């Protein structure tokens, strides 16, 4: 009888413990869903340019513009676009105004895939910069398209065989 009572007590305690875990998981799932909705809405609300359109703009050499990489330091060091200003997302609002002092100059923002770039694009537009565009798909789309990027080894491109150094 005592053994059955102990087992029953353990089952009741376990039931309460697991119900608490399940209840705790639900609110965080709602938070995660809200974050996804929010970032998706921001991505859809800011001006964007495809990597193909951006490459045409670079090749046309008709307009001065700034390029800003908002990824982390390791990501930037692994490969970045030519002449990109490095301003990681968590510090961009302080770094960019010290590096880009004309609020009307065209600015193209990129990150790994587009979300951090969209967040910084919105922040800069809200702050008073007038011509800020997010590069859709970010560095991932840029490298996958076979466009050049730079790191400590020089000019690189990604091919079907992976990354490779390119002569300049």
From TrEMBL:
<dbReference type="Pfam" id="PF00581">
    <property type="entry name" value="Rhodanese"/>
</dbReference>
<feature type="signal peptide">
    <location>
        <begin position="1"/>
        <end position="24"/>
    </location>
</feature>
<keyword id="KW-0732">Signal</keyword>
<protein>
    <recommendedName>
        <fullName>Rhodanese domain-containing protein</fullName>
    </recommendedName>
</protein>
<dbReference type="InterPro" id="IPR036873">
    <property type="entry name" value="Rhodanese-like_dom_sf"/>
</dbReference>
<dbReference type="InterPro" id="IPR050229">
    <property type="entry name" value="GlpE_sulfurtransferase"/>
</dbReference>
<feature type="domain" description="Rhodanese">
    <location>
        <begin position="61"/>
        <end position="151"/>
    </location>
</feature>
<dbReference type="InterPro" id="IPR001763">
    <property type="entry name" value="Rhodanese-like_dom"/>
</dbReference>
